[in-house]
Design brief:
By secondary structure, the chain is mainly α. Helices cover about 80% and strands about 0% of the residues. It is built from 9 helices and no strands. It is elongated, with a radius of gyration of 31 Å.
């Protein structure tokens, strides 16, 4: 009788051990399941892979253009001597900051990584502006950032809009283009008024030939 009880006890212990091992194995399998989470986190990259390369480039271009105008505008706010130029610079900072946020939101939704600072070309322009002061700074800022850069961005958007495949990005580019055009026209108006004030005669550019050529004045070397 005692021998039978011992056998039953051994069997019970064996069964309990087997059940424990099975439970541990199942728990281990469940612990491995979350490893698939990174795949879900990486979903935006999948969205980016679905975008046409040229569409991604448009988002990057819009981000760079807005960043450049914001940086130049902030510099003008600290260095410009003409109140009209300062007011223009403030408008550039306000409106391009707002639009940059829209571009960044779009890029995040599409899984596109955007530049966070000016490119090499715009950094060189910013460095050149920092070396100027007074009236020559005002005129150079308006002609370079206000007119030339907006003209380049406007033309690039005009060329790209018909080629953009993603409907959301196309809509964003179409929204940005008239804003850039307004900034360009405002810069042209400041340049024209500056030329008239320099001569006191409407309709003549006076000695400010840079208004005609679009070239920035070259600062005197010290």
């Amino acid at each position: 009788m005692q021998k039978t009880l011992r056998i039953h006890r051994v069997l019970a212990l064996s069964i309990a051990g087997a059940l424990f091992a099975a439970g541990a194995s199942q728990a281990q399998a469940q612990a491995v399941t979350p490893a698939t989470a990174p795949a879900a986190a990486a979903a935006p990259a999948g969205n980016a892979s679905k975008l046409d390369r040229s569409d991604r480039k448009v988002l990057e271009m819009m981000a760079e253009a807005n960043i450049a105008e914001i940086n130049a505008g902030k510099l003008a706010l600290s260095k410009a001597s003409n109140p009209e130029v300062k007011a223009y610079a403030q408008r550039m900072v306000d409106e391009h900051t707002k639009f940059l946020a829209e571009v960044q939101a779009m890029a995040q939704a599409k899984g596109v990584e955007l530049p966070t600072e000016s490119n090499v070309k715009h950094k060189a322009k910013e460095a050149m502006l920092k070396a100027l002061s007074g009236d020559i700074f005002d005129r150079t800022y308006v002609k370079q950032s206000g007119r030339r850069d907006h003209r380049v961005t406007h033309e690039k958007l005009r060329e790209d809009i018909d080629k953009i495949k993603d409907a959301d990005i196309k809509a964003l580019a179409m929204k940005m283009r008239p804003i850039v055009e307004q900034h360009l026209m405002a810069a042209d108006e400041i340049i024209a008024r500056t030329a008239r004030n320099a001569t006191g005669t409407a309709g003549t550019p006076g000695n400010d030939t840079t208004t005609i050529t679009g070239k920035e004045p070259i600062p005197n070397k010290k």
